[in-house]
Amino acid sequence: MREIMKIELKRAFINTKFYIVVFVSTIFAIGSFFTTPGFTIAKNWFLYMNGDLDASYIIEKCDYSDVAIEIWMPNYGASSKFYFLWLIILPLLCIIPYGITYIEDKSSGLINQYIIKIGKGKYYVSKFITLFISGGTIATLPLFINLIICSMALPFGLPVRSTQFYPVKEYNLFSNLYYQNIVVYLMLYFLIYFVVYGLITCLALAFVYFEENKYMLLLVPFIIYFSEHVIISFGFNRYDTSLLLATNIINLRYENILFYLLQIIVLFLFDFLFFFRIRRDVI
Amino acid sequence: MKKVLKIIVVIICFLVIARIAYVNIAYPAADIKIIDEDEIFDLKNFSLRLKEYDIYSKEEWKQKLENENIELEEEKYNVIYNMNLKTVLLEMEIIGFIF
Amino acid sequence: MNKIVRISLIIILIVSVLVFVFNTFEKYFKEDTNVNEINQENIELNFDYKNSIVDYYSNPVKDMGEKNYKAYQEKLMGEDVYVCYSLESPEEKGYSDYKYYPVRINITDYEIVDSYDGKIDEKWVDISDYDKFMLVNIEITNLYDKDRLYVLSVNEVIHYLEGTELDRYSLIAYNFEDNRPYFYRKDIKETMKNNGQYYYGEIILKANETVKLQAVMAYRGGDYNFNIGEWVVEHRLFGERANSNYKIYLYKQE
């Protein structure tokens, strides 16, 4: 199992498509930094530290220090065009490096060799896990890059609730943790992103039995994810509770958490359809 | 080619870490500091010394307010703020002051 | 089977994209309505208040739905209270979710006086704590050719008023020259920058109208005294936590 995992992970992470996706994600992360009000704040501080008079005038009236978390990408939500566009196309980005390898293996016959050597179960499990890891990594990467960029611009400190600069309010999930231990909050944040987008990416595997066209398969997670967002936001009018918006737990409220968990459970079950069809899969 | 890329990556990592370190050291502190009595706190144009203070826990403060009959401003003057808004418009006759 | 799945997926995608595009860019498809044209019949007032009204930066017409928003205005106008929201301005740069619309703010003059006997909107402010008052005369002109609602906030006053010490004040009243009624809510963004609170006076400005008012600020002109009061005190200098209430007095070092 270890060998097959190594091989598949190498296949997922050491290929051109992965590098291209990382490059595109970096552009989104950098674009988000420069096109939000956070850039103005960071620039102001930079000028102030270098002795600019106008910046000093503004900053010396303040008794607080802006922190990196304040200008982080998800804080600006839909108002940041780069961030929102990235959120919409994220399933496409996640699936490109590794998503269609199952179909490719099947059509090239490689799958037979794998199954003879290691058995069906291990092969499918390794495929699933690798796609999950690949999708989750690509989803969290721009957030991490953006956080690094913000940390290069402003010091890393605790958010202060009473300044009201932060979008996390008392009705949002883990709000106390956000203001008391931001590092743990960030770790949870990344974990949730990793898991949810990993599961979304694995939808492609669940659909391999219905869809044999490679390119259509690339679109499947995106279609389900996007249409789910549209149905929930505009159909049921429950804005901020779709997977697209609520995975950013800064937006997620305690009252919506059950609905959100329900979506994740449905997603999880959907993904496991992949394993149920194994027996009937004809190679 | 690969070696060159590796060197570039190492240099970029080093620059990023150096910059992050510099920002966290040189910029005004973003930490929340806890200062003690009689500790001197230097700001740009003047210094402060905390002469006297009382610390209350959340419950003690609540008790103190009750003892002194200090009401929450929202309840006393019937004003609505962001955080306390939970009810539907129809139930609220108190949409701020009516002149 | 495969064909059915494929076709359904494509249809779902097309429909979702169309719905999304339409809802996101709705304002380009719809015509703006004049605030004065309010239909008084068949008004529904049952909407969820959560995300819409008191959020200064949201677009209430979009959040509440146009009919409900008009109904809300209507209900409040009937009670002589005007509620105002700034609608989107194409001229505002940078802060894309701060929705202002163009107005001209003219600070005509200001003076610092020793006493003030007029009305006070902010009743929690103990004006005996302050030793002076700053009376700022302001003219606001609606640059749009349609009626608009406007949220006046004292930060705009500060922004345009230069050369004064604005560190230690609390806004306590708006006095409109034509005595128009207005609604205000307290903004609890408490920052040590001004040692006080921001307030909003919300008014309706007709097309191209100019309104004159005076903002009254209780002002500490003397020694550097922090009097943080009984509200949330969370300040980076002193290590307190959110939702805790402290009374702290500080003195300049002798």
TrEMBL record, chain A:
Keywords in alphabetical order:
Membrane, Transmembrane, Transmembrane helix
What's this protein's name? ABC-2 family transporter protein
- Residue spans crossing the bilayer: 20-42, 82-103, 124-157, 177-210, 217-237, 257-276
Q: What is the lineage of its organism?
A: Bacteria, Bacillati, Bacillota, Clostridia, Lachnospirales
Automatic annotation (TrEMBL), chain B:
TM region(s), chain numbering: 7-27
What keywords appear on the UniProt entry?
Membrane, Transmembrane, Transmembrane helix
Q: Does the keyword Membrane apply?
A: yes
Which superkingdom does the taxonomy of this entry point to? Bacteria
Q: What is this protein called?
A: Uncharacterized protein
From TrEMBL, chain C:
- Regions that span the bilayer: 7-25
Keywords, A to Z, come to: Membrane, Transmembrane, Transmembrane helix
Q: What protein name applies here?
A: Uncharacterized protein
| Species annotation | Lachnospira pectinoschiza
